[in-house]
Amino acid sequence: MKTVLYVAPTASAPALCLRPWRAEDAAALVTAHRDPLMRRWLITSLAGESDARQWIDDQNRGWDDGVRFSFAIVERGRPVGHIAVKGGVDPAGASAEVGYWTSAETRGRGIASRALECVSRWALGSQDVMPLARLDLLHAVDNHASCRVAEKCRYVLSSVLPAQPPVFPSEGHLHVRMNSTQKART
After folding, report:
1. Stated pTM of the model
2. Rounded-to-integer distance, Cα 110 and Cα 28, Å
3. Partners of 79 in the β-ladder
C-alpha cells in the first residue's frame, strides 16, 4: 500500500504533493545531492542516476515491506525534497524515525515544515500499517535549520546524543513528537 498526501497552498506558497518516489525522479535526486550543504548532513550521497534509481528501488521496497514510508516532496510537478518515516527503530514497534531534506533552491520557504507537519499527522494518526505512538527526529546539533523545523512542528527536544564517528561525527539532537493521546518521555 502506497500513500499520496497533499499539503494545501498558503497565501504565499503553492500546494505540495507528497508521493512515493518514481524512476523518472532520478535526475532530480542527483541534482539535489550535488549540493554541498545537503551532503554535509546526509549519510547517503547519490553520485549518478544509477545510484538514484537504486535508492528509489530501496524506498519502494520499504513501502512494500511496510517498514519505511518515503515521499518525494513535489511542488508544481517537480520533486524538491524528501521526507520519510522509518520503522524498526523500536523493538516494541510503537515509534519510528522521521527525516527530511529540501533542495538548495527551495530552502527557507517553509517546504520542510509544511511537509513534516503533514507526514507527522498522517504517521501518528490516520495510517494503519505501522501504528505509532511516537516519532523521533534526529539531526546534528549544528544543523540549526532542522532544529527550527522540528520546533515549528512541535517536536520537543528530548536529549543531546553523543557523536558516533564516522557516521555521525558530531553530537545530535533528538526531538520527539507523540500522538495526541501520549506524552513525550525524556
Report:
1. 0.92
2. 20
3. 74
Residues 80-104 as b or e (16 or more Cβ within 10 Å = b) = bbbbbbbbeeeeeeebbbbbbbbbe
Which residue in this structure is represented by grid cell 522540528? 150
Residues 6+ apart with CB under 8 A from 149: 100, 112, 113, 116
Residue 183 lies in a domain: no
Flag whether 71 is in a domain.
yes
Q: Which is nearest to 16 in space by CA: 85, 103, 95, 99?
A: 103
Domain containing 71: what range? Answer: 5-178
pLDDT of res. 183 = 46
When pLDDT is cut at 50, 70 and 90, the band that residue 168 belongs to is: confident
Q: CATH number of the domain that 106 lies in?
A: 3.40.630.30
- Contact (Cβ atoms closer than 8 angstroms) between residue 141 and residue 171: yes
Residue 148, in any domain of the structure: yes
186 in a structural domain? no
Q: Is the pLDDT of residue 176 over 80?
A: yes
